Amino acid sequence: MSWFVNLYRSTIGKKIIMAVTGLIGIGFVLVHMLGNLQVFIGQDKFDAYAAMLHGPLAEVVWGLRIVLIVAVVLHVLMAWQLTQRARAARPVDYRMREPQVSTWASRTMRWGGVLLLVFIVFHILHFTVGVIDPAHAFHETDALGRHDIYGDVVASFRIWWVSAFYIVAMIFLGLHLFHGAWSSLRTLGVAHPSAHPLKRRISAAIAIIVWLGFTLVPLGVIAGIVH
Ligand code: HEM
């Protein structure tokens, strides 16, 4: 156990925890995105999918929720601790701070990450708990008496500021994943420096797929394709 405590205390250990928990998050968003795209099949399919998650698969979902909550808490905690360490190592900022090789994605990791955290809290209160219910549709049921999550999604994204908030948050999610996926592979030693960084292209592909897959839902509602 002491090896784990030593690893946890070291800077590289914290980076490894960030990388592993980040990859768990990427796995979740890919599965969640595929689930969401069923909204294009129609109300029956989407409500049935949600009912399955809350019914027969409820225990599996709870197991995954616990893994995800632990991963998010550790990810945020490590980000906080690594930021504090970086600040302690260089209390006075660089006098010249013209970006040289950094990308916009890498420079927005910290406050972009905070914005994503705000989004996730809002999002769970919106579609899972229903405390935030801008469309007054959370408690509706469909023709089969199931929770009409499809109707809630459609009614919510018809409200311009809800769609705008989700669309902007998805841009930050894409940027976070672009840099995060790549740097986690670097931390774990999977991606070695090379003149043809394949891993960079894989990260870009993951970021674009996730960004587009999520963004298509509010865009589909705005365009009237999902109604
Ligand atoms: C347009 C984008 C999105 C849509 C339409 C969407 C839709 C939904 C819906 C309908 C639910 C409730 C499912 C149910 O209870 O039956 C949900 C839950 C959830 N979503 Fe999303 N989602 C989106 C983006 C995201 C993103 C980007 C993340 C994470 C970064 C995320 C994380 C979650 C989490 C953690 C839950 C709670 C799962 C649970 O414990 O039940 N969602 N989402």
Keywords:
single chain; 227 residues; 3 helical TM bundles of succinate and fumarate reductases; 73% helix; binds protoporphyrin IX containing FE
Structure description:
- By secondary structure, the chain is an all-alpha fold.
- It has helices at residues 2-9, 11-36, 43-54, 58-89, 104-107, 109-129, 149-157, 160-187, 198-222.
- It has one domain (2-90, 102-222): 3 helical TM bundles of succinate and fumarate reductases.
- It is globular, with a radius of gyration of 20 Å.
- The mean pLDDT is 91.
- Residues 29, 32, 36, 50, 53, 65, 120, 123-124, 127-128, 149, 153, 166, 173, 214, 217-218 line the site of protoporphyrin IX containing FE.
- Residues 29, 32, 36, 50, 53, 65, 120, 123-124, 127-128, 149, 153, 166, 173, 214, 217-218 line the site of protoporphyrin IX containing FE (HEM).
Quick take:
This protein has 227 residues and is an all-alpha fold. The radius of gyration is 20 Å and the shape is globular. It has helices at 2-9, 11-36, 43-54, 58-89, 104-107, 109-129, 149-157, 160-187, 198-222.
| Rg (C-alpha, Å) | 20 Å
Detail the poorly predicted runs: none
Number of domains: 1
Average the pLDDT over all residues and give the rounded result. 91
Ligands and ions found: protoporphyrin IX containing FE
Counting copies of identical and different chains, the oligomeric state is single chain
Q: How many strands, what sense, and barrel or not for the largest sheet?
A: none
